[in-house]
User: Fold CHAT domain-containing protein from Flavivirga rizhaonensis.
Amino acid sequence: MKKLSFILFLIYGITFSQNLEERIYVAAETFISNTNNTSLNLLSEQESAFKKQVKSKGEQLALVFLQCHKGYYLDQSSQLKEAIITFEDALNRFKTNELSKISDFNIIESCLIPLGNLYTKTDDYTNAENIIKQYIFLAKKNNYIKHQASGTINLAILYQTIGKHELVLKLTSSYLNKQNLNKHQKQKIIQLNIDSQIALNMINDVSDIPKTIHINVYDQFRNNYAIQLQNGNYIEALKAFNKAKTHISKDSLTRRKLAKLYFEEAQLNKLLNNLNDAKSNLDLALQILLPNTKSIEFLDKNDLYAENTFIDLFDLYATLQEDHKTVLNYYGLSFYVSKLLENNWTSQENKISNQAANRIRSEKCIEIIFNTYQNTKNDTLLFSAFQYAELNKSGILKEKSIKKALLQKHPNDSLLLQEAALLKEQEETTHRLINEQLGKSQASVITSLSSNLNTISIKLKILKKAINKKYSELGGTDFLIGDLQNKLLKDEAVLVEYFYGKKAIYQFIISMNGINLSKINLDEGTQKHISDFIHLFDSASIINNDISKFTTSAFTLYNILNLTKTSFFKNVTMIPDGLLNFVPFEALLTSKTNTTNFSKMPFIVQHQNIVYNTSAAFYLKKAEENRKNDLLGIFPVFEKTKNSLTYSIDEANAIKEEMHATLFLRDQATKKAFIKNSSDYSIIHLSTHASSGDSSTPANIEFYEETMFLNELYSLDLNTNLVVLSACETGVGKRYKGEGAMSIARGFQYAGAKNVLFSLWQINDLSTSKIMQSFYKNYSGSKSANTSNHQSKLDYLKDETIDNIKKSPYYWSAFVYYGELTKPTHDNKLIYVFISLFILLIILFLLLRVKKSYGKDITGVSS
Assistant:
């Protein structure tokens, strides 16, 4: 009986399974035959039910088939975010269940190609590149010529979108003479190659295009339009554009491509000062993307979605306006869409790139407010300008800080723990990918790592949605001017923040008394002054060989940067930007001087304590301190090598005398030891070599046996009060607008270090050792890193055992402190001494009283 029941159960299960698989295919085919929003809603309901039921590989494959067709419809109807989610789920399902082993389902054409294109449309360039390279590899492996060409075309379009035209030429040139390409693909590859040559000014006239290359009529006019536009011949460009339009069918274009066509026409009309025509073109483009919106005046912000074409439209709309409020409102719409796009990204490289684009818009907003303020003197405008400056300051570090604070508040939350683990895995995989690419590993290994990154990205997006829904405190880093001014009053400080734009440097000086906004024109002279001053620190001999040149340059830059306005404040919180990130402000001179004696020069450091930060939001934030004051020291020393750090041992001994420290010396100073112990200490000190990296290699730091690269630091989880990087160039790296240098110091900030002391250039071993010894001597008593850093430089300048030539700012001003401005505390030992003396005085007083009383008693008995 039991056997019969089991057989019946098995038969029923198989039948049900077959029925479920068939039902999924039927639902998909029904939708394909009648695609509209009503059938889409029905399909989505069915999909949700199917997801809960599917078990077998056949059922999973059927669901992938359904999702690919759903994703295609969503893409065509401009529901890009939903399309991406659908394709990502299909791809993840296909990989997880290893469906390629049971079917020849064309995942490249059905899922990977449209998903890669969607990533490009929504500016998710990191995932786009990963996906496209994946399917190019798969196409080569399976000898799919058509898909190889499709991948090449889409990768070229991606590189063209982000301005990497040299890569486009390299990529397309290898395909120009390939056989077995269909006519359409060949034409597309030729045209992409020509487009990038025009962009690079390699083609300045249509006659420069070889006549042997076959180009259709539409592309001929498009090429002429692009060349004329590039050369500034706008009338001829419009003529060519209009001729090109007559050779395309608007019905054959997607809504997105048609909107972009109207945008291009609007651009041309704006350049020709045909403002009404430009406005009409933009309204047409907006109507295509938002059919229920007649023009921007009737726009409902809630109707907007993650589509980068909107940003182009709103930015151009803004340039057609005169009223400053309307202009700022339109730019605000661009910022809003930019945020919608960014919400779907997981790669920090992608977000950093977006920040750079947003800064161009921020500069325009600050300029508008600055000009309006000159006419109105309305002080409320100044804080608005400051908010635009802050908008794209260290956005990635801010986001990381918010996530870390949330996890500290909810340490047992499974969602937050999963996210933290995935972010760590993402950085570790990125590091491995960089290493494999540098080592020129096999394409299969690189493709596998790229695929893993994409899988991690998909998982992070799903988690992010759940976390945002659960935690309302996951907001931004907005603050009120009053909060900032109250903290400055408490710290007896002034805040100086720079915004380094393309046309100007804007300087904000904020104190308890108000905000001051200055504009420094960024002409060639200003740029040269800044650059020349920075290059004075390229080697030790430059300043000493021409001291008068240094003093002149240091005082000139002090005036250019308007620092006289801050001279009344003892403490300065400095937020540099752009090239100013590499200026040692303490080495600037507050007045002219003819002296060649460095210790007598009026350096800023002689009068003010400068503390640096990456954003005013970080200055305001009060981080929870790690109560322990134990120090972890890493000293590889590198004895008997050309990289020997002779005085590093003196540095270690000085630290041992002043601090409760665990030191790893010589062959104990390994990367493994550092990683194992780094999270257990409140202070980390690394005395070693470091490099800022180059165009292909990221910034890195040396341990005894191995190098640690920047992405490896990103994967650490530190709760460290202070990191001291006693090494060269730890504050230097590839520079990104808004985010700063991708340096070792930034790596530690990203990993969770609250305060960091680091160097801006290659520094002398002996002078570093002396400064560090002084730093820890001061720190052991004051527990204030900013005060100790300031005092260590003063001590160095006052030290009579150091020759004048070694007192050049090259030797002492390299170290900059980024973090909190903290007041020094009294040395506990001194407190104990005072308490002991007080107790002794009380005891003596009591003894005297007793003796006096005892004396009276004796007198009384005698009488």
